[in-house]
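Hello Y.,

Per our agreement to keep a running log of every chain we model this quarter, I'm adding this entry. I've kept the format consistent with earlier entries: sequence first, then predicted structure.
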Amino acid sequence: MISTNAEVFKKNKRKINILLVIGIIFLLGSLVLLYLGLENSKKKIPDPINILEAKNENTYSYIDVSIKPHLFAVYEVNGKEEDVKYYLVMDKDNHLYIVYMNNDTYKKLNIDSINETPIRITGISRPITYDLKKQAIDSYNEFMKYEYLTKDNFKENVGEYYLDMKTKINDSTLYCIGTLILGILSLLFIVIYIIKVIKNKKTMNELNPELLIKIDTELSQIVESEYQDMKFYLLKDYLVDFDDNIVIVPYSDILWIYPYDRTYNGLLVNKYLKVTTINNKVYAVAKTRSLEDNKDEILEEIENKIKEKNEEVLIGYSKENKKKVKEIIKDGKNKSKIN
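Predicted structure for the entry above:
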């Protein structure tokens, strides 16, 4: 492929290379998270401490349960009850605790012999929220049929932390999720980069070398273009667009142009021109931004300038124009078969 000197070509290459750089950054990030996750999972699990001695959250702690659990809070996710629920338990000293555990653990604790043989459970300390505290007070007092727990004595009788048995010590789930997300983003950007490189190389290779030199020279001589913010250029014989992939179309090949609204969830993203050629190729060029107030005027101006270059160009979308374009393309194919 011929080397190009025009600054617009160089900017387009830099823009595409940024996709590769971003992809590599995401890839490195995913590898870092993977390493951190593996290292975290290798950490030696410390001996648990009594949750009453926990000074901070995320402390590996234990409770020696000697009374059957009392369910007091159940939360729903997507309309379904969670398997993991909040219970009140008690030790041999009649100190209350809040535990977040699943049904299997509840069944192990919900036995008559637990009064004589306490069962130790372990988990991570979590701060008791205001909502959780209120539910625990209301539920336990209703169960006891008198006001045993209050906001004032809650810390003394229950403590500041509850035991979370769902989260595992040295849990690397977040690292795994982060690795997966960054890995997918990395793959996405690298694939987009490869597709753009292949498309642009194909476009450049399809052009006659002398013609590409001519276009490159014209672009190099442009000091300022009224459409350069759109990365769109009207040269002597060609329109050139660099906004997404490289598009180079001779005016003589253009059959039909009309403005097109690109929307997302009912919101206008941008407006651009759809260009159909005699080879039945359709290009999206001259993309405006949604915040531009004079989008329609800009696109109409471009349409008129292209019409000046090729008077046979059909302007605007209509059933008649669509039918004419189909007939012209069909006739062109039939002629090529005859020849």
